């Protein structure tokens, strides 16, 4: 039994075995993509062979483990075992095409195993994990500011309900919609509600049409549809873009970069210990 365990451990830790499994993972993911275009029996046969290889791999790793407890302590082992078991669920159980596609989507998650294949990727993943606590506080910081600006934006730039307007005010509103409509045309008032204001600010953070927001609201200010000066519109959007894009995002980048070096050192130390 010990000889079998040692044999399995030798195989699962071999470089050629890791390369083989990586190639099979890539082939499996690629063919799942191909299956979205065509339903081919040859592809199904290759996928069955891939599933057989994954099954053999998980069995080898199970035998190579020092104990059942140690095997199930490994998050990747549970992840791989789950995907292998999902692979044996027959698609005939799902007459609905969307349910069948969902099953295939679950199978493609196997490609995530490549995250531990290359040293550079492993270092980045470890750096992200180490940064989670800092990222959480950055997220809280970001939510505070986006909530604050969303309330201010809603108070200053919310467009009036046309049903409540009449006379000159209605004419100005209609003129605004003709010259500076919401973009796209089916979108609601960008600052009409608190949740829409938060989404508008997030859209501005990505650099998507934030200047159009400013131009449209300047037109609204000129027509008197919103009761603020044009300079307020400009100041608000520039302040938010500078704060979010240059400060808040850089805090996130800084948190990750600070942990990247320590993750790299840990990976180097781990490799040295394995060689010993």
Indicate the CATH topology of the largest domain.
Answer: Helix Hairpins
Q: What is the chain-wise order of helices and strands?
A: HHHHHHHHHHHH
Q: Distance between termini?
A: 26 Å
Summed up, the helix count is 12
Q: How does the overall form come out from the CA principal axes?
A: elongated
- Main β sheet profile: none
Question: What is the total number of structural domains?
Answer: 2
Q: What's the CATH class of the largest domain, please?
A: Mainly Alpha
Estimated structural class? mainly alpha
What proportion of the residues form beta strands (DSSP E)? under 5%
Strand tally: 0
Overall pLDDT level: 81
CATH architecture of the largest domain: Orthogonal Bundle
Helix content: over 70%
Q: How large, in whole angstroms, is the Cα Rg?
A: 28 Å
Low-pLDDT stretches: none
Write the layout of secondary structure elements.
Elements: H1 2-12, H2 15-34, H3 41-64, H4 68-73, H5 75-87, H6 97-108, H7 119-130, H8 132-157, H9 167-179, H10 194-205, H11 210-223, H12 230-275
Q: Could you please describe the fold and organization of this structure?
A:
It is a single chain. The chain has 276 residues and is mostly helical. The chain folds into 2 domains: 2-117, Voltage-gated potassium channels. Chain C (Four Helix Bundle (Hemerythrin (Met), subunit A)); 132-263, Helix Hairpins (Orthogonal Bundle). It is built from 12 helices and no strands. Helix 3 (41-64) packs antiparallel against helix 5, helix 8 (132-157) runs antiparallel to helix 12 (230-275) and helix 11 runs antiparallel to helix 12. It is elongated. The two termini are 26 Å apart.
């Amino acid at each position: 039994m010990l000889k079998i365990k040692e044999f399995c451990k030798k195989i699962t830790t071999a470089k050629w075995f890791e390369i083989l499994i990586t190639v099979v993972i890539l082939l499996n993911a690629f063919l799942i993509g191909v299956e979205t275009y065509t339903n081919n029996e040859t592809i199904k046969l290759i996928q069955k062979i891939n599933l057989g290889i994954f099954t053999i791999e998980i069995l080898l790793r199970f035998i190579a483990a020092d104990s059942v407890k140690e095997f199930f302590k490994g998050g990747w082992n549970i992840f791989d075992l789950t995907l292998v078991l999902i692979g044996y669920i027959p698609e005939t159980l799902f007459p609905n095409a969307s349910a069948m596609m969902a099953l295939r989507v679950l199978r493609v998650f196997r490609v995530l195993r490549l995250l531990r294949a290359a040293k550079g990727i492993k270092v980045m993943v470890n750096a992200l994990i180490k940064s989670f606590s800092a990222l959480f506080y950055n997220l809280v910081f970001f939510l505070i500011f986006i909530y604050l600006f969303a309330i201010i934006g809603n108070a200053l730039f919310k467009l009036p309900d046309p049903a409540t307007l009449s006379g000159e005010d209605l004419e100005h509103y209609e003129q605004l919609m003709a010259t500076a409509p919401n973009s796209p045309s089916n979108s609601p008032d960008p600052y009409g509600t608190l949740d829409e204001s938060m989404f508008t600010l997030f859209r501005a953070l990505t650099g998507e049409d934030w200047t159009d927001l400013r131009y449209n609201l300047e037109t609204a200010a000129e027509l008197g549809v919103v009761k603020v000066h044009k300079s307020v519109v400009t100041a608000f959007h520039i302040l938010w873009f500078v704060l979010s894009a240059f400060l808040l995002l850089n805090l996130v980048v800084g948190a990750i970069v600070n942990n990247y070096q320590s993750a790299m050192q840990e990976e180097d130390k781990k490799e040295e210990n394995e060689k010993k």
